[in-house]
Amino acid sequence: MEPLDGNAIAGLLREVFGAEMTTAVGTCAACGTTGQVAETVVYIQAPGTVMRCRHCANVLMVVVTRREVNCVDLPGLVRLTPAG
Amino acid sequence: MSPVTRGFHGRRREAAGERGRVPPGQFVTQDFPVLSAGPTPHTPLDQWTFSIRQGGDTTMSWTWQEMRELPAEDVTVDIHCVTRWSKLDTRWQAVSIDTLLTQVEHQARYVLAFSDGGYTTNLPLADVTGGQAWLAFGFDGQPLAPEHGGPARLLVPHLYFWKSAKWVRGLELLQEDEAGFWETYGYNMYGDPWREQRYAGD
Amino acid sequence: MAGTAVRGRLTWETATASAVRDETPTVRTIEFELPGWGGHRAGQHLDVRLTAEDGYTAEREYSIASAPGEPVAITVERLKDGEVSPYLTEELRAGDEIEIRGPAGGYFVWDGQDPRPLLLVAGGSGIVPFRSILRYREQTGIEIPVRLLYSARSLEDVIYRAELDQLSGGGVEVVYTLTRQQPPGWTGRSGRVNAGMLMEVAWAAGQQPVAYVCGPTAFVEAVAGGLVGLGYPAQQVKTERFGGTGES
């Protein structure tokens, strides 16, 4: 499957963060680009969900669902702020 | 447990003829699914190298030409992905990792395979030697396609297939086990499909 | 409704399929009864979870096909080698229960608050969120002008054809392009959406339009690039990529 975008994990992120996250604004730790989660590059078929910066491909977030528990890591985000 | 959905079975589990060849929780596929965590790299062959690194230095390195001059073999193996698909009798053209490692003096107990695009995965040295692991450059008689890890990938069929790093560019030799990409995010450090070691702590 | 987040439950709820309707040979709409549903905005999504007897679960996200206020519905395309879509499009029947979580999404939503002309460009099953948007526009009597450019393989693959024909007029223009096969006597467009087609069909950049593009990744990126090439500011082009057959 081709890579998708942050819209594809709207439900997953809402459950993990307890807030609407597609409009959350994040800053990439590698290249400094700021943008909305909906516009990130998202891979959902791998062993986990991987979110990458659209500009530099740096890994921003990884979600691994292990037996119904979602484990989220934010290795590449300097900041992540839910909208409004 | 969530309520069972009437009529939903997931993918079919092993068929009668395959019993014993398919680890627990897996289903057999005739396809070859492409699972990626990042964009497909495209390193030109004239820039490709495979390196053995120790203590921060490159101890040994082969260009594509040099690697292809090493003795290679046809390997037919079953492969098992942690996302539950298994593919039987896959045919590869590959150089044994033993062939590469015997050219290096070392006392390593673990390796960390590293790939174009930043992917890594860790394995005990004992699991990439003794005829258990290869550097594979051909699949089914054709050059390995980029989407499946070409020009070359690691092939370690006795462990879950995330350990068979696509786009592999070398092995870091280590004294201690060091978590690679998926291992860092909660997957098992070893990954034996027969003991269903999918996640950390399994 | 503008600006308010609709807060659904963050947990899985059991829904009952109340009706199924085949839209095309490979696409089906499923309506649900879900007593706890708190409403949704046009363009939002929900997640479906299926559980096998051995406890194995599979989850997928779908765009909500119904407008706010209507019974919750999704439209699912059966994917070759799919795991969930064959179940939803072939096995599931009215009366069956499945788990649903939602709604979620805040980026690819349309509330009719922005008065600018709306361009919707859909590839294949990318039409689903636009059904929600167009039905919402019709329900509420919002008069914002809309152009929908919908790319499908053939007329048989056009989802919601009768509904879309019925929704057009009154400020909504629907343009189809069939990429693989056209019926005899077809006077509509053919071939993939390209810069030339966008130039003819899309609102001119000078009209300050807002664009939503939905479909397979390659389609979305080509169209979004084409719109920016026509002078649409990137922030006025919203994109949603679907994983699917990849052919539109």
Task: Detail the topology: elements first, then pairings.
The complex is a heterotrimer of chains A (84), B (202) and C (248).
Chain A: E1 4-5, H1 10-17, E2 25-28, E3 34-36, E4 41-43, E5 49-52, E6 59-66, E7 69-73, E8 77-81
Antiparallel strand pairs in A: 1-4, 2-3, 2-8, 4-5, 5-6, 6-7
Chain B: E1 27-28, E2 49-54, E3 57-63, H1 64-68, E4 73-80, E5 85-96, H2 97-101, E6 110-115, E7 120-124, E8 134-139, E9 142-143, E10 153-155, E11 168-174, H3 181-184
Parallel strand pairs in B: 1-5, 2-11
Antiparallel strand pairs in B: 2-3, 4-5, 5-8, 6-7, 6-11, 8-9, 8-10
Chain C: E1 13-24, E2 27-33, E3 45-51, E4 57-63, E5 73-77, H1 85-91, E6 97-104, E7 118-123, H2 128-140, E8 146-152, H3 161-167, E9 172-178, E10 189-190, H4 195-201, E11 210-216, H5 217-229, E12 237-242
Parallel strand pairs in C: 7-8, 7-11, 8-9, 9-10, 11-12
Antiparallel strand pairs in C: 1-2, 1-6, 2-5, 3-4, 3-6
- CATH architecture classification name of the largest domain in chain C: 3-Layer(aba) Sandwich
Strand arrangement across the biggest beta sheet of chain C: 4-3-6-1-2-5
> H/E element string of chain C?
EEEEEHEEHEHEEHEHE
- The stretches of 5 or more residues of chain C where confidence is low (pLDDT under 50) are 1-6
What is the first-to-last residue Cα distance of chain C? 34 Å
- Report the β-strand fraction of chain A as a percent range: 35-45%
Q: Describe the main β-sheet of chain C briefly.
A: 6 strands, antiparallel
- The assembly state of the depicted protein chains is heterotrimer
Strand content of chain C: 25-35%
Radius of gyration of chain A: 12 Å
Helix content of chain A: under 10%
Bin the helical content of chain C.
10-25%
Mean pLDDT across the residues of chain C is 94
Question: What structural category arises from helix and sheet content of chain A?
Answer: mainly beta
Shape category of chain C = globular
Distance between the termini of chain A: 33 Å
Secondary structure tally: strands of chain A: 8
